[in-house]
Amino acid sequence: MFDIYLPILPASYLSHSVVTTVWIGIMVVAFFNLRFGWVFTGLIVPGYLTPLLLIKPLSVVVIFFESVLTYQLIYLISEVASRHSLWTNFFGRDRFFALLLGSVAVRLFFDGWALPWLTHYSISTYGVNLDVQDSLHSFGLIIVALIANYLWKPKLISGLFQLVITLGITYIIVRYILIEYTNFSLSNIGYLYEDIAGSILASPKSYIILLVTAFVASRMNLFLWLGI
User: Fold this and answer.
1) Residue 118: how many CA atoms within 13 Å on its side-chain side?
2) CB–CB of 24/18 below 8 Å?
3) CA separation, residue 125 to residues 5, 45, 109, 120 (Å)
4) Per-residue pLDDT of the chain (228 residues; tens, 9 = 90+)
């Protein structure tokens, strides 16, 4: 191995910031979009998940699980129910707002009840602590909804394949190039508002603001389409 050290990142911020990994993730997503026509939504997802994959990999597993459930839930309401004239299918910002609502419901159920109960049950019954490094929960205010939205156009299997590939390449670049040969470090990396991002119960006001904003954007889109 070559003994190379390139202090190319400003030490005050980008050398230990998730912004750096998000930039790399965006470039990876852009490459696959331009070269293979893969979806261009969820730009920040690979770069945002990469540090989490290095620090709390179990959280990434939970995020993927909850994202798939959110996708399936809204797909059932939007596409399956509409075929039986029980509902109208969602489109555009209305669909994203529905995915946000679905992600909040899924996270409340799993992060607020199911996963803590599973941890307690495994300890009390089998003496096994599933809450490895306090990571058995999802992460981020909006990341679950973004992944579910990412999966919508290419559908579940194809979307997961694309996401795993872009995340894997971003991970390789960060772990084996950026960390090894530059001054980038995860030792003190911090996500903005980590207490909010790490628990859905930490700040309900943040979710109220998020959902209200998404709802207003959805309605404004309808008014513009109607010319009101």
Assistant:
1) 12
2) no
3) 50, 37, 22, 8
4) 456 777 777 777 777 788 889 999 999 999 999 999 999 888 899 999 998 898 888 889 999 999 999 999 999 988 877 777 777 778 888 899 999 999 999 998 998 888 888 888 888 887 777 665 566 777 777 899 999 999 999 999 999 999 999 999 999 999 999 988 888 887 766 554 455 555 666 667 778 888 888 888 877 766 665 555
Beta-carbon neighbour count of residue 23 at 10 Å? Answer: 14
**What's the pTM?**
0.87
Single out the residue of 29, 18, 24 nearest to residue 163, CA to CA.
29
The b-or-e profile of 53-91 (16+ CB within 10 A means b, else e) is: bbebebbbebbbebbbbbbbbbbebbeeeeeeeeeeebe
Concatenating the DSSP letter of every residue in 177-194 gives IIHHHBS--STT---TTH
